[in-house]
Specification:
This protein is mainly α and about 100 residues long. It has a single domain (about 20-100), classed as DNA polymerase, domain 1 (Orthogonal Bundle), CATH 1.10.150. The protein has 5 helices and no strands. It starts with 17 loop residues before the first helix and ends with a helix.
Length: about 100
């Protein structure tokens, strides 16, 4: 059997992003006069982008549109990931091994 493609889920398999998402949402909310606490992160786990941005608009007191919230959070994530990519231990080695064996 020939392996032609390998697909990974990103979060929880290659990257551990949960804490960064939470920190970016919290910092964004505070910077815009809102709040984000320990009860909010579990409420948006598994939500798609429009759902969590709408949740933030409805519950955090941020006076921005859903699109503005989404854009701000994604921008914050990009900045953090540019500084540090939270790789799960061993993930990089697995990807490199697969890349070297299956071309």
């Amino acid at each position: 059997m020939t392996i032609e493609t390998v697909i990974f889920d990103l979060d929880g398999v290659l990257l551990d992003t949960e804490e960064i998402w939470n920190a970016v949402r919290r910092d964004f909310a505070l910077a815009h006069g809102g709040r984000w606490d320990e009860h909010d992160q579990p409420a948006v786990m598994g939500a798609n982008s429009l759902q969590w941005a709408a949740y933030m608009q409805e519950t955090s007191g941020i006076p921005l549109t859903v699109q503005e919230i989404y854009d701000g959070i994604v921008g914050g994530l990009k900045e953090r990931y540019a500084r540090h990519l939270p790789l799960i231990p061993g993930a990089q080695e697995v990807v490199r091994r697969l890349a070297s064996r299956y071309r």
